[in-house]
Amino acid sequence: MQRKFLVIGAVMAMLSVVIGAFGAHMLKPIVGEDAMKVYETGVQYHMAHALGILLIAVVTGFWGCTRKLAWAAWLLFAGIILFSGSLYVLAITGIKPLGAITPIGGVAFIAGWVCLIAEAATRRKD
């Protein structure tokens, strides 16, 4: 599972850079300033949580892959898709109802971090 999280985290980080570059070079001239801010927020959260998945991959190397760590990684991944993905689509299309998906992704982010905290807090001293 460690390798899977390492690959997912690295792919998500790479996609964050690609999506950010697309926004900066291709999208900026097309969409308004407000839409660009929404898009940039998606990119920032995308990268931060991709790094979180990579952190979980490293931690699984030390502690093994527990249920809490697996949930943490999958929830961060789901958060990237739902939170950042909805912001990307909202910024590009202007379809406002898509904004209703964003908080679900935010909850997934929070739940993922809570799982990581729970694992660390209940870990026995080695």
Quickly describe the structure.
With 126 residues, the protein is mostly helical. The chain is 83% helix and 0% strand. Helix 1 runs antiparallel to helix 2, helix 1 runs parallel beside helix 3 and helix 2 packs antiparallel against helix 3.
Would you give an account of this structure?
- There is one protein chain.
- With 126 residues, this protein is mainly α.
- The protein has helices spanning 2-27, 33-63, 67-93, 102-122.
- The protein contains 4 helices and no strands.
- α1 packs parallel to α3 (67-93), α2 runs antiparallel to α3 and α3 (67-93) runs antiparallel to α4.
- The chain is elongated, with a radius of gyration of 16 Å.
Residue share in β-strands: under 5%
Provide the helix percentage: over 70%
Query: Can you tell me the residue ranges where pLDDT is under 50 for at least 5 consecutive residues?
Result: none
Q: How many H/I helical runs?
A: 4
Radius of gyration: 16 Å
What oligomeric arrangement do these chains adopt?
Answer: single chain
- End-to-end separation: 22 Å
Shape designation: elongated
What series of H and E elements makes up the topology?
HHHH
